[in-house]
User: Which sequence fits this backbone?
């Protein structure tokens, strides 16, 4: 049994990437894991100042909602990030959170497996590549972690357009197969 944290970064209620996150969550839960799905919607997460104080204190000097999210990331065995693809990259909310997760770098974090769940209006296979590359740049800073899998749902734009998309079954199976 693993402690699985899923972070949805879409600010739109009923978003396609969040529905992917819910399916991943359902699969991980059905497999017997402890699962928490959180959304960045409504959270106050400010930009990193680059002061690097967190490298010594293991805590960010900015008092906002990122501190609670980063603490959950620290304690998770598995993290899945769900994001819409904007201009062929991850959402700004997710990138800001990853920057603010800098206190994790010198810590004894638990996570090993990282997943990325993406959706976009474009449906070319290459659409999520830059978003995945951005996440792997972050993962590369954590030598005990690895990108364990990705799911992409292309051709979906409006809220809940993902219903019936084959990526939902893929997200469920990926969550279910967490070991």
Assistant:
């Amino acid at each position: 049994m693993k402690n699985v944290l899923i972070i949805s970064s879409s600010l739109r209620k009923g978003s396609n990437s969040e529905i992917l996150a819910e399916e991943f969550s359902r699969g991980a839960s059905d497999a017997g894991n402890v699962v928490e799905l959180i959304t960045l919607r409504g959270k106050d997460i400010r930009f990193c100042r680059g002061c690097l104080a967190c490298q010594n204190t293991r805590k960010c000097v900015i008092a906002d909602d990122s501190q609670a999210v980063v603490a959950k990331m620290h304690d998770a065995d598995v993290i899945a990030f769900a994001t819409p693809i904007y201009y062929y990259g991850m959402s700004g909310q997710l990138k800001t959170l990853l920057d603010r997760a800098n206190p994790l770098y010198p810590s004894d974090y638990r996570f090993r497996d990282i997943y990325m769940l993406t959706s976009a209006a474009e449906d070319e296979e290459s659409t999520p590549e830059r978003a995945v590359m951005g996440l792997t740049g972050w993962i590369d800073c954590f030598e005990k972690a690895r990108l364990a899998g990705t799911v992409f749902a292309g051709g979906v734009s409006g809220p809940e357009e993902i219903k019936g998309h084959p990526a939902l079954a893929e997200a469920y199976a990926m969550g279910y197969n967490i070991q």
